[in-house]
Structures are given as C-alpha cells and as structure tokens.
C-alpha cells in the first residue's frame, strides 16, 4: 500500500510537471520536478525492502541534482545539468558492467547490435559536433565523452535485452531509449530551435525514464538475489 502511495505521488508530480510546462507555468513545472525522483526513489526502497545499493543511490541522486540545480542557479545551470546526468549514466554503466562482462554472445547478435549502436553513435556524434558550443560553456571533449557514454549505455541495454529477453532488460532498454530521446530533444530545443512539441516530448521522455529505470533496478535486484515475484501495480 505504501509503495502505491509513492507511485501515485510520482504520477501526480509528473502530470503536474508536464501540464505546467505545456501551459507555460514554469515555476510549477520546476517545483513539481523536485518531487519526481524522491517519489520514485521511495517507491524503489519500498519494493526492494529497503535494500540500499550505492550505485543505484548514486544514479538517482545524480538525476535529482540535475533536475533541481536550475532552482539553485537559474541563470547558469546547463553545465552542471550535463555533468549530473553524465555522472548518472557513468554510474549506471558501472552497475551493468559486471554482468555485462560475463555475458557470452553469438556472432550474429554482435553484428546486429554493433550496427544498431554505430548508427546511434553517428547520429549523436553529429548532433554534438554541430552544436553552438559558445552557448554551452564546456569543451568539446566533455560533450563527446557524454555522447559516447550514453551510446555505450544504449548498446549495453540492447545486448542485455537480446541476451536475456527478460522483463528487467526490457525496462532497461526502454529507460535508455527514453534517455537518448530526452537528451536529443533537449539539444534541439536548447541549442537549435525551440519547438514546443519537442520540448513537451523531452519532458515526457525524461520523467517516464525514471519509472522504467527504477522498475529495472527492482527486477534486476530481485533476479540477483532470487527474491520471490514482485507484483507491480
């Protein structure tokens, strides 16, 4: 029951955030964002019986800091936002790495996955290289590293999905795809043209990514520790 309350708070916060952004109520959007990651983090803790994992905590904390830093420094927040989410992606890679390195794949799977990821890397790299860097306030190497990290994360999630075809891996793939689209739409609206539909899509993708990410953590921890089945509402 408590986990359902946390999930309801998350859903309400997401809805209020998206609606506020759509109608131009920026303060409402920013302040409702403050509740999104804490609500989904509490949901994770309740579902996992308060099994605290340092890497998972670091991922959620980095995402939270990336979301709220604009409230702390409204006029100079882009650089810190990028670094916060880069930290979250790196921690998620470290979380996945042990099992990833143990995985044995078939050659055909490797070929298909390499092709998919190469295309994703090329698109993201092109977007980064075409940016107006004077508006960002950070160097090209950091941005390239950000793109490589995100694309590597997407590659790992796809490989894991084809390898295990499990509920956990499905949630991971969806979360990483949402990360990818959220960041891509952010780049377009922030540094190219401010399309309202893309701004809406970016925010929806971002807040939904937390839901799928936390469900992945719950299912993956359950699989690792051989818990009994967890029923989601």
Give your account of this protein's structure:
By secondary structure, the protein is mostly helical. It contains 8 helices and no strands. The protein starts with a helix and ends in an 8-residue tail after the last helix. The C terminus is likely disordered.
Secondary structure class reads: mainly alpha
Tell me the major beta sheet: none
Report the radius of gyration as a whole number of Å.
18 Å
Low-confidence parts lasting 5 or more residues at pLDDT below 50? Answer: 227-233
- Overall, the morphology is globular
Strand segment count: 0
Describe what is shown at a glance.
The chain has eight helices and no strands. It has helices spanning 2-22, 26-47, 54-72, 78-102, 107-129, 140-164, 167-191, 196-225. Helix 6 (140-164) packs antiparallel against helix 7 (167-191).
């Amino acid at each position: 029951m408590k986990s359902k309350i946390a999930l309801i708070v998350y859903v309400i916060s997401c809805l209020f955030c998206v609606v506020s952004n759509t109608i131009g109520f920026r303060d409402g959007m920013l302040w409702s964002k403050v509740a999104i990651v804490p609500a989904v983090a509490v949901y994770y803790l309740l579902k996992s019986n308060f099994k605290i994992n340092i890497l998972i905590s670091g991922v959620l904390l980095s995402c939270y800091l990336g979301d709220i830093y604009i409230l702390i420094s409204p006029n100079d927040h882009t650089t810190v936002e990028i670094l916060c989410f880069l930290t979250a992606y790196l921690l998620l890679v470290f979380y996945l790495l042990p099992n990833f390195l143990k995985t044995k794949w078939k050659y055909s799977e490797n070929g298909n996955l390499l092709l998919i990821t190469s295309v994703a890397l090329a698109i993201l790299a092109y977007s980064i290289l075409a940016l107006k860097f004077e508006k960002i306030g950070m160097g090209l190497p950091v941005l390239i590293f950000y793109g490589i990290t995100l694309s590597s994360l997407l590659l790992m999630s796809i490989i894991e999905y084809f390898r295990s075809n499990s509920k956990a891996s499905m949630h991971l793939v969806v979360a990483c795809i949402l990360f990818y689209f959220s960041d891509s739409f952010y780049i377009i609206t922030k540094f190219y043209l401010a399309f309202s539909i893309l701004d809406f899509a970016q925010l929806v993708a971002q807040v939904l990514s937390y839901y799928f990410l936390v469900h992945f953590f719950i299912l993956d921890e359950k699989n690792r520790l051989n818990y009994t089945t967890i029923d989601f509402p």
